[in-house]
Structures are given as structure tokens and as C-alpha cells.
Amino acid sequence: MNFNCKNIVLALALLTLPIVAFAQPDLPSEEVEVIKDFEARLEETNKLDLSPTLPPLDAEQKNFSYSIPTRTLNVDYPAPKIKPLAQRRDKIEPSYNGYTKLGYGLPASPYGELGYHYDKKDLYDIGFHAKHHSANYADLEHQRFSDTNVDVDGTYYSNLGFAVGANLGFRSDEVHFYGYDHEAIEFTRDSVRQRFNTFEAGARFFNGVRTQGDINYEISVNSYFLREKFLEGKEDGVDLKLEVVKWFAEKHSLNVVLQGDFTKYVTINTEQSLNNIFAKPSFTYHGNSFKIKGGANFAMQKDSFFIFPDVEATVNIAGTKLAAFAGWKGDLQKNSYRNLSDVNPFLQSEVIVKNTRYNHYYGGLKGNIKFVEYQVQVGFKQANDLALYLNDPSDYKRFNVIYDNVDIFNIEGTVGLKPLKGLDVLITLGQNVYNPDNESKVWHLPSLEGNIAAKYLTLKKKLRLKGECYIADGAPYLDENLSQGNLGALFDLSLGAEYLVTKNIGLFFDANNLFANKRERWYRYPSYGINILGGVTAKF
Per residue in 322-367, pLDDT tens? Predict the structure, then answer.
């Protein structure tokens, strides 16, 4: 603490003043001269240096043993009953196991369908389906068809977590080669009738419930045995497949597919085999606003080995309203006799079967805005050995298959609309631009195809109205003189209705090709024109 010297002198003077005044009353009153200023000093204190230290650690390890008795607690806690103030129950729609549909139409066209499905929850399910549809257009000789198929399938779910399924099926598809000059030539029915009889059988073994390691697996075998009546040709096929999917964080997946697809095609004069083996690993990663798939397709055919990419990326630009996607995929597409005859049933009995090898590059936009869902895609495909169809010069009412390498530029779009409650509209449109290497045209392949379909459910779900319009341009062909031409365009408008008279009985009516368009999809084979079909439906 610091003190001012003058203040100290003044204080001392004030304290001694009474004493001086009492002891020396006769002192003179002269001024006092201070010779030296007073200085007050404090001596330095002795500081104690304290440095605290921790006691030494006890490094000895000690083991503690605890004995906790096991005790089961039985808690009686009745669940609370929450009673809503007011709640309207949804009406439970009645469920039915069986379904049948019977009808008749013009031209002479009987129709019948029967289905039945039964299941016991978490134990098994079994289903049966049969269908027949035929027609005979009397104005043009032998313009008729018949299609009959029967299928049975079932699945058993074990309490050990696995499931076993099997299926059996039979299909008889009958067509007639009516593509000839009916004014100049006549044929008996047997001489132009073709029938494809196909028997199918399959089985699969898979996980019926979610596994502990989030791994889904499936082993399947599917086989078919096709017999064609005209030249007694036959084709047998077996497809073996193993697929395993491992999930990570319930959204990322590692997928591995091993597949062997074997086909043998035999006619009176030829025997051909078409065997493909695949290994397809891929991984798909789902981010917050994007998805990326990366994989490859390792394919082997005889002595040839191919590696195709399997990559795709999707990015959300504006949530679900707008997303962009792009990809690159390749594969071997098998042109077996069964696949070819499904496209064109008027084939010769002896054709060359081979694979179409392709690489497909594509990209586009997709999303949904309110009641509109859309997708637009632009792509480029390199197709080696693409199947084309030409009339056989020795029998012009039947077709041969030829192959060519074709570059295909494609643009396609799909729009789904739900503008009103109960109304669904689907619009699709696709345009292909072909560039073949050897042929001047891609014979019997249309370039433009489109479809508009609408369904409307009203009157408390008792009445279902539907309409469909299908358009396509004319496909190129070669006539008997090897002159090029284009088949007529297609504009096919169809309308239909279904009405429930009771809960399980209904009526249906379909009117197809209302504009009577007889466009030829295949040269010399006009379509049926207007045809109608009506009848009754029942659920039981």
C-alpha cells in the first residue's frame, strides 16, 4: 500500500498538536521548516512455496466378483383400451377364391376363362387357371385361330424359413396360313393348319421369410417342350438359375446371378443347339438423392465369350418431380424357335436360331407432378444379328428369318394420368430409326408404335368403362417380284364396359377395331376388322 508523505506529516501534526499545546504553551509561533520528506516503507514478506503432490497410485490389479441372481418378473399390465369419439368403419370388400368369364362374339368367337386360388396363411398357396379363345372369320377362307392354355402352380412355406414352389402348364396355339391369293388358289384346312403344343414345368427353392443376414436367395429350374404340327418339329429348353441378393443397411444391394439357358431345336432335316451361360454380378447404392448401379454381364456361347456392362445412374433434380437417369447395358437375346414363333406364328418350320448380341446406351428424365407421372428416354442400340422376317419365295404364305447387324436410334415416352377419382390414363409412344448393315430395310419391323388406354371406375365401383387406341406405321416388305413396299398404317380403336349386377355376378362387352382397319401386320395377312365379344362374369 502506498501513502502520500504530506498527508502523513499533516496527520501526525494534528495528533501531537494538543500535547505540544499543553506542555509548551510558551513556544514561539514562528513557521517550521521541514528539512526532509518522510518516507514510509514496508519490509518484504517471506512467501511460502507450496507445491502439492498426489499420493502414489495403487497399481495392484483387483478382481471383483459379482453374483446377480436370475429372477423372472411377471408384470400384469392390461393394455389400455382407446375408444375413439367417432370413427366410421371402412366397408370390407368380399373376397373370392374363384373367378370365371364366359362369352361369345363376332366373328364366331367363343371365350371361356376359369381361375381358382386358395391359400392358408404362412403355410401354402395353390392356383389354377384355364382359358380358351377362338375365332373364325368366314368371309376369308381359313382366317381363324384357337388359343387354349391351362396352368397349375403352388408354393409351400416351411416354418424353417424356406419355401418350395412348382408349376405345370400346357398351351395349344392353332393358326392357319391364310396369306395367299384366295381368288386364284384354294387349300384344304389341314394343308394350312399349324398347331404349337407346349408343355411347361418348373420348380424353385427360395427364402420364404427375411433371413437373419438380410440375404435373399432363389434356385429355379424351368423347362419347356414345344411341338409344331406342320413338319413335326420340336424344341426343348431348360433354364437353370441361381440368384443371391445381399442387402446392406436395408437399401444397398449386392446381386449375383448365375444362369444356364439351354435349347435344342430339331426338325426333319436339321438339329441346332443354342446354349448360353451367364454370370451377372452387380451392386446398387442408394443415396439421399441418387442411385448408382454398377455391374457386368459375363456371357458365353459355344466358344465365344462376351463381357457386357450393366451400369445405371439416377439423380433426383427436384425431388420426385424430376429425376435424370442414364445407363449402358448389354446382353445376349435368344432367338429360339419358340421366341420367334411368338412374334410371327406364320414361320417356316425350319429356321436358323441364334442370339442377338446388343449394347444399349440410354438416358432420360422421369418424375411425377400432382396427378401426372412421366418418363422420356432417348437411346442408341447396336444389335448384331437382329431377326428380320421375309416371305419365303418357295411358299409365300410363310416366312423365313434372316439376320442383320442394325444400329437403332430410339426415342420413347410414357405418361400416366389420374385426373379424376377412378380414372386412369396411360399413354405410350415409341419411334425407332433403323440403320441396317446389309439389308436395305428392316423387314416387317414397324418404326412407330403408340397406345392410349383409359379406364374409369364409377357407380360405387359397379361400372368399369375402358377405351384403347393403338397406332402403328406400316412395316417394310418384299413382294413376289422382290419389289419393296410398306404395309398400311394401323389405327385401332376399342371400347369396353363391365357392370356388376350383384356382388359376384357381372356383365361385360368389348367392341374392338371400331374403324374396321384391316391393316396387315405381316404381308398378305389382313387383321379381323370389327370384332365384338360379350358375356357374363362370376366370382365365387
Answer: 999 999 999 999 999 999 999 999 999 999 999 999 999 999 999 9
Dihedral sign for Cα 512, 514, 518, 519, please.
Answer: negative
The residue behind cell 418404326 is: 447
Reply yes or no on whether the pLDDT at 90 is more than 90. no
Q: Which residues are within 8 A (CB) of 116 and not within 5 positions of it... i.e. 6 or more apart? A: 97, 98, 99, 127, 128, 129
**Which residues on neighbouring strands pair with residue 99, listed in sequence order?**
115, 539
CA atoms of 262 and 259, how far apart (whole Å): 10
Grid coordinates in use for 294? 454398377
Tell whether the torsion through CA atoms of 511, 514, 520 and 521 is positive or negative. Answer: negative
Question: d(Cα 282, Cα 254) in Å, to the nearest integer?
Answer: 6
CA distance linking residue 414 with residue 429, whole number of Å: 7
3 state SS of 6: helix
- How many residues are given for the chain? 540
How is 266-330 classified by DSSP, letter by letter? E-SS-EEEEEEEEEEEEEEEE-SSEEEEEEEEEEEETTEEEEEEEEEEEEESBTBS-EEEEEEEE
How far is residue 222's CA from residue 224's CA, in Å, rounded to a whole number? 7
**Whether residue 48 has pLDDT greater than 50:** no
Which cell goes with 239? 433354364
**pTM of this prediction?**
0.81
Cα angle 33-22-36, degrees, rounded to a multiple of 5: 20
Alpha-carbon distance of 305 to 55, in angstroms, equals 77
Beta bridge partners of 157: 163
Is the model's pLDDT at 1 over the cut of 60? no
Distances 263 to 30, 332, 435 between C-alpha atoms, Å: 145, 14, 30
Q: Is 239 exposed, middle or buried (0-12, 13-18, 19+ CB in 10 A)?
A: middle
Check whether 15 has a pLDDT greater than 50.
Answer: no
Q: How far apart are CA 385 and CA 406, in angstroms?
A: 8
DSSP state of 16: H
What residues contact residue 436 under an 8 Å CB cut-off, 6+ apart?
Answer: 386, 404, 405, 406, 442
When mean pLDDT is compared across 49-63, 220-234, 368-382, the lowest value belongs to: 49-63
Cell reading at 408: 437403332
Query: Quick one: pLDDT at residue 121?
Result: 86
Query: pLDDT tens digits, residue range 443-489?
Result: 999 999 999 999 999 999 999 999 999 999 999 999 999 999 999 99
Q: Judge whether 295 and 280 are in contact, CB under 8 Å.
A: yes
Residue-level pLDDT at 139: 87
First to last CA, the chain: 111
- Grid look-up 448401379 returns 293
